[in-house]
Specification:
This protein is α+β, with helices and mostly antiparallel strands and 408 residues long. The chain is built from 10 helices and 17 strands. Helix 2 packs antiparallel against helix 3.
Length: 408
């Protein structure tokens, strides 16, 4: 996510093109079942033209790849070549209205119902771009560092080692010629970095810095009124432990009172106790200064408030348009065209999403309270769908992450 730290285990892909229903896949496998646009609740009521800038950004990334490059984990979204005609039609549409956008999608993309085993329902949460007050120089008012990437942090690409069940990237540091785990949050908070990491900015409020670490990006307002945008650079490689879970486990909050707003209120009301509890999360985030539009998602494009979503790229390819069917934090239907443009350390599984609400107080309010059940459909270029249904082998086949089945 703009954000945020997704280290994933390798998986393979199997495609099956039979009209009858295949045996139930493993619980962690994404199943795609052919659908039609009449199956999409609220399809005719959305305003897809609002999502067109986001779709154009994602299309530009995918279409720029070599034609045979897989889209998503082992090509669950086809190849980049499969997207070129559809993306060209998206780019050529001008001016864009809701009606023309809808017809273009119906012409060039086919919906596929996503499910996990026999269930098409999953969890949807929200996130936003954090707002902070900060300074380029520390003083008695601005005392909390926002660090850039440390000079001694190294990453190791594990793909060439073919280690089954391991993450793709190892994060650590070199000590005596060996790669060892990088410093944990508690060590960093107590000065363990020394001079290894540059301080990009100094923040006013430690709780705001924690929210920045959770959200993965933010806007920092400086004393002269100018604004600096910062985004996720890399993590220290340790697992993420949510502060909400820690507060629940310690009996500080009940599960029904563990919204982002309640967590922030508790931290501000209990500053003496907050530090040790926060340090129970070993993960630490390092940032980079951003120029231009933002915040940037994991696909490398600027996110669009209300139209970008973080997904698990182990299952859903980045850049794919989705039809979302869930509820907003106030219980109202939230059915709209979205783009899978980001990832998150807590966003795991075939049916899991994090809805990007934007920036500011209203976005914080929505993101902090959102915890809804729902599902989605992947919109894939028609060439990919047609080949899959014909039973053709489009990608490498093995024990598989995804099953494609059924007739629309």
């Amino acid at each position: 996510m703009m954000r945020r730290l997704m280290l994933a285990a390798p998986a393979l892909l199997a495609l099956a093109g039979c009209p009858e229903r295949a045996p139930a896949p493993a619980p962690d496998r994404l199943t795609l079942t052919a659908a039609s646009y009449t199956d999409l609740p609220g399809w005719a009521a959305d305003h897809p033209a609002e999502a067109w800038p986001a779709l154009l950004r994602s299309c530009a990334v995918i279409a720029a790849r070599s034609a045979d490059q897989p889209v998503g984990r082992d090509g669950v979204g086809g190849t980049a070549g499969d997207w070129r005609a559809a993306c060209a039609a998206v780019k050529a549409l001008s001016p864009v209205s809701d009606d023309t956008a809808r017809r273009t999608l119906e012409t060039w993309f086919r919906p596929w119902r996503a499910s996990r085993g026999d269930s098409a329902e999953g969890l949807f949460t929200g996130y936003y771009e954090a707002d902070l007050r900060g300074s380029r120089q520390p003083d008695s008012h601005y005392r909390h560092p926002i660090y850039g990437r440390p000079a001694d942090l190294v990453t190791v690409d594990l793909k060439p080692f073919e280690l089954d069940g391991r993450g793709e990237t190892l994060v650590g540091r070199l000590v005596g010629g060996k790669v060892v785990p990088y410093l944990r949050r508690a060590e960093i908070e107590r000065g363990g970095l020394g001079t290894q990491a540059p301080v990009l900015l100094w923040a006013e409020d430690p709780v705001d810095v924690l929210l920045l670490h959770i959200q993965g990006s933010g806007r920092v307002t400086l004393p002269d009124g100018s604004v600096k945008r910062i985004g996720f650079a890399i993590s220290n490689g340790h697992r993420f432990v949510g502060i909400g879970k820690t507060l629940i486990d310690r009996g500080k909050l009940t599960r029904d009172k563990a919204s982002m707003q309640e967590v922030v209120a508790w931290l501000r009301a209990n500053p003496a106790d907050a530090g040790p509890l926060v340090e129970e999360n070993p993960r630490y985030i390092f940032f980079r200064l951003l120029e231009g539009d933002g915040p940037l998602g994991a696909q490398g494009v600027a996110l669009t408030a209300g139209r970008s979503m973080a997904v698990d790229p182990e299952h859903v390819p980045l850049g794919v348009p989705l039809w979302l069917d869930t509820q907003d934090p106030d219980g109202k239907p939230l059915r709209r065209l979205m783009l899978a443009q980001d990832t998150g350390s807590a966003i795991k599984g075939p049916i899991r999403g994090d809805f990007f609400w934007g920036a500011g107080a209203a976005a914080f309010d929505k993101a902090g309270r959102m915890k809804s059940r729902g599902g989605y459909w992947l919109l894939l270029p028609r060439r990919q769908g047609d080949v899959a249904l014909a039973g053709g082998s489009v990608h490498a086949q093995a024990t598989g992450l995804t099953t494609v089945q059924g007739q629309p």
